[in-house]
């Protein structure tokens, strides 16, 4: 696949104007406060796994609207507390099985993997979900991005971003977690969710968004090849008069707007042959970061798989130097 977007030199200088609503901060502050008021106690129980060298726990925490959301918690044997990585999952995936992601815990971190409400049925080789989304929406075009898209208060991603922030807050209350050493990460959709969590929570001390989706959403909608972009274009091809409302909703969900509130250290990645998380959309968010300590890992000949394990090794080294 050839490069899908601007040249690398152009990307380093790409700073588009992305609409940030005047009430953006108030919208998210009130959203979070409403769900905190409905919060229930986090429940942690032993996970049934064959793992013997790592501790594995099944977690249920209180997300948007007080909804129960599942997560896995893995950590090294011993009491801790440990520096902690909270991970969010890519589009269509769920938390999977407790033993699917062992790298962070085997590297000395506590690791929380959030289930993605309503998702977890798109990956044949793993990633089943265990959390329903009990909130309905008006007609949508498959997938998740178009659910409730006519109004920011009903958007699916309002619920998902809230879940993410409240998991960080729940993590900080766990005995095995060092609340002063919490990082967030994720790939694709998970990277976009990590950016939102880092922009909304002061508990996040480092962020590692990997080829993040959900950035510069108007350009993404116009150029990205498939997945959520195709679903939303399909929606707009039917609901022809909805474009102004849809773009307004997207402005409350855009990773570029969250990036302008991120002050923690950030290691981001981009792949120049990615036709899903378009490179220009990733750089648009990167350039808005307020972080004094930020890095972009560029993979010129990769697509949406990004840097794979090569990048994860870099993430571990980078995070150890900051947490």
Structure description:
It is a single chain. This protein has 323 residues and is α/β, with parallel strands linked by helices. The protein has a single domain (8-320), classed as 3-Layer(aba) Sandwich (Rossmann fold), CATH 3.40.50. The chain is 33% helix and 20% strand. The chain has 11 helices and 9 strands. It has helices at residues 8-12, 24-36, 103-106, 156-171, 189-200, 217-223, 228-238, 243-251, 255-259, 279-288, 308-320, and strands at residues 43-46, 54-62, 68-76, 82-88, 110-114, 177-187, 204-210, 266-271, 294-299. Strands 1-2-3-5-4-6-7-8-9 form a 9-stranded mixed beta sheet, with helices on both faces. α3 (103-106) links the parallel β4 (82-88) and β5. α2 (24-36) packs across α4, α4 packs across α5 and α6 crosses α7. The longest helix is centred in the middle third of the chain and has 16 residues, at 156-171. It is globular. The chain starts with 7 loop residues before the first helix and ends with a helix. The model has no long low-confidence stretch (mean pLDDT 95).
């Amino acid at each position: 696949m050839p490069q899908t977007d601007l040249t690398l030199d152009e990307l380093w200088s790409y700073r588009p104007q992305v609409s940030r609503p005047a009430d953006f901060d108030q919208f998210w502050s009130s959203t979070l406060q409403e769900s905190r008021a409905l919060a229930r106690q986090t429940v942690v129980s032993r996970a049934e796994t064959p793992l013997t060298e790592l501790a594995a726990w099944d977690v249920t925490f209180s997300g948007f609207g007080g909804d129960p959301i599942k997560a896995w918690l893995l950590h090294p044997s011993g009491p801790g507390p440990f520096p902690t990585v909270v991970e969010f999952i890519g589009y269509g995936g769920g938390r999977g099985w407790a033993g699917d992601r062992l790298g962070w815990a085997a590297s000395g971190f506590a690791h929380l993997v959030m289930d993605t409400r309503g998702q977890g049925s798109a990956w044949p080789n793993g990633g089943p979900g265990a959390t329903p989304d009990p909130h309905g929406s008006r007609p949508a075009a498959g997938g998740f991005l178009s659910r409730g898209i006519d109004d920011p208060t009903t958007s699916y991603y309002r619920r998902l971003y809230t879940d993410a922030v409240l998991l960080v807050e729940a993590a900080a209350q766990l005995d095995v977690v060092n609340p002063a050493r919490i990082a967030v990460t994720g790939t694709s959709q998970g990277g976009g969710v990590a950016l939102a969590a880092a922009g909304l929570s002061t508990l996040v001390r480092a962020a590692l968004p990997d080829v993040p989706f959900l950035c510069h959403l108007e350009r993404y909608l116009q150029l990205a090849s498939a997945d959520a972009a195709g679903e939303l274009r399909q929606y707009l091809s039917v609901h022809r008069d909805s474009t102004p409302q849809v773009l307004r909703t997207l402005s409350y969900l855009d990773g570029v707007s969250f990036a302008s509130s991120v002050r923690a250290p950030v290691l981001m990645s981009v792949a120049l042959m990615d036709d899903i998380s378009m490179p220009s959309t990733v750089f648009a968010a990167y350039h808005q970061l307020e972080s004094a300590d930020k890095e972009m890992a560029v993979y010129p000949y990769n697509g949406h798989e990004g840097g794979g394990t090569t990048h994860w090794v870099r993430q571990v080294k980078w995070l150890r130097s900051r947490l």
